[in-house]
Write a structure and sequence with these properties.
heterotrimer, A mainly alpha, B mainly alpha, C alpha+beta, A: mainly alpha, two-stranded antiparallel sheet, 12 helices, 4 strands, about 45% helix, B: mainly alpha, Cytochrome Bc1 Complex, Chain C, two-stranded antiparallel ribbon, 15 helices, about 60% helix
């Protein structure tokens, strides 16, 4: 087969025609190299959409570990606020819970189940998650999610504030820690920058302008409220890791929240901040504003025809 | 009003006397008048695209001026200090003295931040204008004999300018440039056989470097490379003066002459005007548009990094190559032979610069044209050269774009992995498309355009097989007339020449 | 072809004709020739481009004067801005930038509308003087008069050159490090893991789904081999190679924080809330997006990194503090020539 392909290629290379032979040779070399690269690349790595996924359920059972969708499996559970830490009060009135149940049945149970038990390969169980995750996902509009395989992204909230309260009350009634909170006024900006750089900037960018990770887009935090920041830090939505009270205590959390709010208006002492994204907008300005101006000046000074 | 008029008259007379005295003094002491006269009457061709190199030159002047100011305040030391300056967010933070000194320039030294920003904008514009100038030189064929040597001097200056810029913003030791230095270290290490030695030599030990590292980097940035650049600029200008500038073809323009504006008074004034304009744009940008806000990023530590970290644009082509490469790292018996960053960080720029250096010789070889050229080509008149140049440029630009568009992916929510896989093939396919498209465009422009540079009137005729004449092409004026026999003395088969 | 009184032109024309004939051969050359012949240059006695105009433009002169005066105002304004608020680059920039822009405008206006506008013609001068070249070549060749065994001496000189160059280049090797273990690491058996403020990590501090940066106690925190990523994974994600099964007490794993591609610190960690609809736990480097799986020994699954992430064995001491149980399984930092890649 290779011999036949080789004969075909040789025939194409030497056939009479308008394209110069050297150009055909160059094309052949380029496409050959390209093809080789593609083949080598596809063998170089395992390119799976789901990477690092655990083995099949049978193998899991053999290893003695619980199935991943079991509520008692060790998982990234939302971290409870430590004693003495800021807590957002959980709504608990029975009327609210009943309203929440109605809303849940219509809007959420198709994925999360009528008893919040979750649905295999679709949505996790919500038993024991508490008020924090419910409040976070609903007020940032990330839930309800049309396609469970897509990343939940910030959107205008589907529900009104009262409806969110009701849903939070309902979910919290199934157990779990209260929602954490943060008070930026009590935070320290320098500590906030320090902790944010160490723990958050790798994904969220140094001034919280968001970014990219392999498998998800990382949101910018320009619309985040202090409560949402605290909730996200303690629960780790979607692919984000979470941070325990040991790692980031309340003062650190307040400081990080204060820093994130500060990034909405960072100290752009040098003038127009060009979105605070770093050298990319700077390069665009250098070429398409500064150099363009100078080229126009040159055209003004010089002649246009020889 | 009258007083100012009279005053102005007095000033002119004084200047006139001064000028006379200057000319006499210089002749008596240096015998310089013949050189001065030659200089004053020196003719520059007027096309605007010949000013691009001057933009680069004047940016360099601004760089040196602002650089001197900055060098007076910068401290090249990696000794760790605790910050107690005016910037609240870094108070109490541990950082190197180098970073602290730059914070000092930014917040405490009057005009310090202005000078820093002008210096950085000037660096970006300096390299950009060199690249634009290089494109002009390439697409008009100005690199041909006798200017191939000068072209190589120019390429060397481009390399030095890129290195100089990278060294400059790495002196600050902030989080962003520190990450860049780590990558540079990895690229140095990746060179087979001598990589580790080179890395240790430059960094005075393993990364992040010995205590001398910033001092050495400063000497490189403040003295060694600027001195080399100044020398090369002098060579570049002297060679141009000796050979005279090229010019586009046109009325009265020949290979043997130069048609243009004499240096004095018009060209000198316009050139000074361009210099002042470059300085104006750079100072306005330095005051109004923020660049490199290092205080927002904090100091560098090897165990820290941030998302979306990018180098300055003239290093961006390398980050693209590093991101695009599949994870090839050939080994023999479990030992790495060629570490992965070599391909994107060393081999890729090596190939690009080698091709650029070799191009005049390649073109001479392939076309067999060893003549001296002082007249330029319009890009459309050399479709293959223009197409090859466009394809090569597009190859580099695509790789550059891939490295800096993760933010674009962030906006459009297209999977990063998919994009990389696509571009691994696309980076080879697209330049081929560009080649054919450019060549086609050049040929189409040649056919359709009346070619304003060559204002000829008449017809291009060829003898047909039956003895008559057929018109191949005609200028707008010549179109209406009958085909005319070519003038006497034209040899058969060369009717198109005159 | 019309000739003129310029001496070199006839020769040039012959060379041009020769060049044209050479163009007739070769593939790329044929491609070049295939483009339509550009129209010929106009004849020698076309209009003479020389000219000289004296604009005598009073309005332009006034404009120049006004621009210069305004530039002076801005120039003094710079000093004023400096005195009033020297650390504000906006005012300073507008002042000096404005002054320079106005000066530039004045010069350009003067250069185009005030001073005499002239188009002149200058001869280039012959760069190539054949006699000079011949004379120089003769001079050089005279130095070799009488030498007959050129090939022998030439060959010997070549050999000597090769030998000398190799000798000159060899001391370079002394400059470098011993190649194995190029990046020193402060991690030895028993060194405690601490955070960036020096507080030791207990095993109980490390929770599932969180990312920790650890540094060696009393070690050089700036060394490439110092920074660690510490995570805890539940058993269903742990598939370590056989030789390293015991390196993760309680499922706590430690890896070098320095990417094996180009030495950036790895700072992205994804841990799924719900595994079936998203990706499993992985480290990603922000520089070129190399992605490593902590549960599978730091294996590379995406990106340009050529080596897996070096893993550090951990142990929990009697007080529950995490300590290193030995050195990394592989060299840390970016690869270099001959770095040994571990098989396990």
């Amino acid at each position: 087969m290779i011999a036949r392909a080789g004969a075909l290629a040789a025939g194409w290379l030497t056939r009479p025609g308008r394209t110069p032979r050297s150009l055909r040779l160059a094309l052949a070399i380029l496409s050959g190299t390209g093809a080789l690269l593609l083949i080598a690349n596809s063998q170089a790595q395992s390119v799976g959409v789901l990477e690092g996924a655990p083995a099949t359920r049978g193998a899991l059972a053999a290893q003695g570990g619980p199935p991943t969708d079991s509520p008692t499996a060790p998982r990234k559970s939302p971290i409870a606020p430590a004693p003495g830490e800021e807590v957002a009060p959980t709504p608990t009135s029975p009327a609210l819970i009943a309203e929440g149940r109605t809303l849940f049945d219509t809007g959420c149970s198709s994925c999360h189940g009528m008893a919040l038990q979750g649905r295999k390969d679709v949505a996790p169980s919500l038993v024991g998650v508490g008020a924090g995750p419910a409040d976070f996902y609903l007020s940032t509009g990330r839930m309800p999610l049309e396609n469970p395989r897509e990343e939940p992204l910030r959107a205008p909230s589907h529900y009104s504030t009262r409806q969110i309260e009701a849903l939070v009350a309902f979910v919290a009634s199934f157990g779990g820690p209260p929602a954490p909170d943060a008070d930026p006024a009590k935070g320290d900006l320098a500590l906030g920058l320090h902790d944010f750089t160490l723990n958050c900037a790798g994904c969220h960018q140094i001034v919280a302008r968001g970014g990219l990770t392999v498998g998800a887009a990382v949101p910018d935090l320009q619309s985040a409220t202090p409560r949402e920041i605290a909730e996200a830090v303690r629960m780790g939505p979607y692919l984000m890791p979470h941070f325990s009270t040991q790692q980031l205590d309340q003062h650190a959390l307040d400081s990080v929240a204060r820093y994130v709010l500060w990034t909405r208006h960072p100290s752009n002492k040098g003038g127009w901040g060009i979105y605070n994204l770093g050298p990319i907008p700077e390069g665009i300005v250098a070429w398409f504003l500064l150099l363009l101006t100078l080229v126009l000046l040159a055209r003004l000074i010089g002649e246009r025809t020889a | 009003m009258l007083a100012t008029r009279a005053g102005a008259g007095v000033i002119w007379r004084v200047l006139d006397r001064r000028a006379r005295r200057l000319a006499r003094h210089s002749e008596e002491r240096m015998g310089a008048n013949s050189a001065l006269k030659w200089m004053l009457r020196y003719v520059f061709p007027d096309h605007w695209s010949f000013l691009l190199g001057e933009i680069a030159l004047y940016s360099f002047v601004v760089l040196v001026g602002t650089g001197v100011f900055l060098a007076l305040y910068y401290v090249p030391s990696d000794a760790q200090v605790i910050y107690h300056g005016p910037y609240e967010l870094l108070r109490g933070e541990q950082m190197s003295e180098a970073y602290s000194s730059v914070l000092n320039i930014t917040f405490s030294v009057p005009a310090g931040l202005l000078m820093r920003q002008v210096h950085h904008w000037a660096a970006d514009v300096f390299v950009a204008s060199i690249v634009l100038h290089l494109c002009r030189v390439f697409f008009t064929g100005a690199y041909r004999k006798p200017r191939d040597l000068n072209y190589m001097v120019g390429l060397t200056m481009l390399m030095l300018a890129i290195l100089e810029g990278f060294a400059g913003y790495s002196l600050v030791d902030d989080l962003l440039s520190g990450m860049g230095l780590a990558i540079a270290y990895a690229v140095a290490l990746s060179i087979p056989f001598v990589g580790a030695q080179i890395g240790y030599l430059v960094w005075d030990g393993e990364f992040p470097g010995g205590s001398d590292f910033f001092a050495r980097l400063e000497i490189l940035h403040v003295f060694l490379i600027p001195a080399a650049l100044a020398l090369l600029i002098a060579m570049h200008l002297a060679t141009i003066m000796r050979q005279h500038h090229t010019q586009f073809p046109g009325p009265g323009r020949r290979e043997r002459n130069v048609v243009g504006t004499p240096m004095w008074p018009a060209y000198a004034l316009r050139s000074i005007g361009l210099f002042l304009g470059v300085a104006a744009v750079l100072f306005l940008a330095g005051g109004l548009i923020q660049i490199n806000p290092i205080w927002q990023w904090g100091p560098y530590h090897p165990y820290l990094s941030e998302n979306g970290a990018q180098p300055d644009w003239y290093i961006g082509w390398l980050i693209g190559a590093l991101r695009l490469m599949p994870n090839w790292e050939p080994t023999i018996a479990g030992h790495t032979i060629v570490p992965n960053p070599f391909w994107g960080g060393a081999a890729f720029p090596g190939v690009v610069f080698t091709v650029m250096y070799a191009w005049p010789a390649i073109e001479r070889r392939v076309t067999g044209d060893h003549r001296r050229h002082d007249l330029l080509d319009r890009p459309r008149d050399r479709p293959v050269r223009t197409a090859i140049g466009a394809a090569f440029l597009s190859w580099v630009v695509i790789i550059f774009a891939v490295g800096s568009t993760d933010r674009l992916f962030f906006r459009l929510h297209i999977s990063y992995q998919e994009q990389i896989h696509f571009w691994r093939a696309g980076v080879w396919v697209l330049p081929i498309v560009v080649f054919f498209a450019t060549r086609h465009a050049c040929r189409a422009l040649q056919r359709s355009d009346a070619h304003p540079l060559r204002e000829w009137q008449g017809q291009l005729v060829a003898r047909s097989a039956d003895g008559g004449f057929e018109v191949l092409a005609a200028s707008p004026e010549g179109r209406a007339t009958e085909p005319q026999a070519p003038p006497l003395g034209t040899a058969p088969g060369h009717e198109s020449e005159r | 072809m019309s000739t003129d009184d310029h001496p070199g032109r006839g020769r040039l024309a012959r060379l041009a004709a020769l060049g044209g004939r050479l163009l007739a051969a070769g593939a790329l050359r044929s491609a070049l020739r295939r483009s339509p012949t550009p129209p010929p240059l106009p004849p020698q006695d076309a209009e003479d481009p020389r000219k000289r105009e004296v604009p005598a433009n009073r309005r332009a002169e006034t404009a120049v004067a006004v621009l210069l005066a305004l530039a002076a105002v801005f120039g003094f304004g710079f000093t004023a801005a400096y005195v009033l608020d020297g650390t504000n680059p906006q005012f300073l920039g507008i002042a000096i930038g404005g002054a320079l822009a106005l000066l530039s405008a004045a010069c350009v206006t003067a250069g185009k509308l005030v001073v005499p506008q002239e188009t002149a013609v200058e001869e280039r001068g012959l760069l190539y003087e054949e006699q000079q070249t011949e004379a120089t070549i003769d001079l050089i060749e005279q130095g070799g008069e009488g030498i007959s065994r050129r090939a022998l001496i030439g060959g010997a000189a070549g050999l000597a050159g090769a030998g000398m160059l190799t000798a000159l280049a060899t001391p370079l090797a002394s400059l470098g490090p011993d190649l194995p273990g190029i990046h020193t690491t402060p991690w030895r058996r028993g060194v405690r893991l601490v955070d960036d403020e020096g507080n030791p990590y207990s095993a109980s501090d490390i929770v599932i789904g969180s990312l920790f940066t650890a540094l060696p106690e009393h070690g050089d925190t700036e060394a490439l081999g110092a920074g660690l990523l510490v995570v805890k994974l539940p058993p269903e994600y742990l598939h370590l190679p056989a030789a390293r099964r015991g390196w993760a007490p309680q499922g706590i794993l430690a890896y070098s924080k320095i990417c094996t591609h180009a030495a950036c610190a790895i700072s992205l960690y994804r841990y799924p809330t719900y595994q079936p609809t998203s990706n499993g736990p992985a480290f990603t480097c922000p520089c070129h997006y190399s992605t490593f799986l902590p549960g599978e020994g730091g294996r590379v699954v995406f990106g340009p990194a050529g080596r897996a992430l070096p893993q550090l064995p951990l142990m929990v001491d009697d007080e529950g503090i995490l300590r290193a149980a030995g050195p990394f399984h592989e060299d840390v930092g970016p690869s270099w020539f001959s770095v040994r890649r571990s098989q396990s």
